[in-house]
Amino acid sequence: MINYRSNITPTWCPGCHNYLVFAAIQKNFSDLNIDINNLVMNYDIGCAGNFADFFKTYGFHTLHGRSIATAMGEKIANPNLFVCVIGGDGGIYGEGLNHLVSAVRSNINIKVFVSNNFLYSLTTGQTSPTTPKGSRTKSTPTGNINVPIDPVKLLKSINPDVFVESVDNRDMVKLNDTIKRALEFPGFALVDMIQECVAFGKQLNS
Ligand SMILES: Cc1ncc(C[n+]2csc(CCOP(=O)(O)OP(=O)(O)O)c2C)c(N)n1
Ligand code: SF4
Ligand SMILES: [Mg+2]
């Protein structure tokens, strides 16, 4: 069995869903026997970006919002590589949305995993593109005035041929199955992994 994890102990808060995501991605890499020598991971910035320390594959810890652009460059330069991205809702659906749209339009064969916790969590809980309307966050103390992005509807409207699914991480069976189907899909695939940030998420319902 291939070992994809580094010897660094993850530093996420106790109870953070990123531990589930980490286990599920490793399990599926292993089940599908993905060659570690041919695998490149691209990490965004934020708590989700911190996966960079915990996988031991080849990879780039990119800039906030630039992980998909980096991944596209790798795939175009060497189509034989298996190219993945891990990032948060802020990086992938906010600062990097233009790159996401380009990737979806071209149906480029990269796999994108989004830890969607409805917040900018690493920076302690500001609003993100998926924050529900009316929610109080650090940057919207009287309630968010914006409607949230629905990634499945948005991306499917751009290109119905891509794989885009949302999954609630609390359903581990479904999370595993969705990741597996994304990894096997012969084109662009994005898994929107819905999770509550245990440190700053409670304020969303206040
Ligand atoms: C270009 C750029 N803009 C802003 C920041 C500051 N910053 C670091 S992490 C972060 C929020 C990350 O939120 P998200 O992408 O949802 O990841 P999470 O921490 O929630 O997993 C921000 C705004 C940065 N590092 N670089
Ligand atoms: S702040 Fe939230 S997203 Fe970040 S490690 Fe803690 S629980 Fe996870
Ligand atoms: Mg986030």
Query: What is the overall pLDDT average?
Result: 97
The percent of residues in helical segments reads 25-40%
CATH class: Alpha Beta
How many helices in DSSP terms? Answer: 6
The CATH fourth-level homologous superfamily: Thiamin diphosphate (ThDP)-binding fold, Pyr/PP domains
Report the C-alpha radius of gyration, rounded.
Answer: 16 Å
| N to C succession of SSEs | HEEHEHHEEEHEHE
Please provide a written account of the structure.
- This protein is α/β, with parallel strands linked by helices.
- It has one domain (18-205): Thiamin diphosphate (ThDP)-binding fold, Pyr/PP domains (Rossmann fold, 3-Layer(aba) Sandwich), CATH 3.40.50.
- The protein contains six helices and eight strands.
- The strands form two sheets. A six-stranded parallel beta sheet has the order 2-1-3-4-8-7, sandwiched between helices. A two-stranded antiparallel sheet has the order 5-6.
- Helix 6 links the parallel strand 7 and strand 8.
- Helix 1 crosses helix 6 (172-184).
- The protein is globular and about 50 Å long.
- The mean pLDDT is 97.
- Thiamine diphosphate is lined by residues 44-48, 63-64, 87-91, 95, 115, 117, 119-123, 128.
- Residues 46, 88-90, 117, 119-121, 128 line the site of magnesium ion.
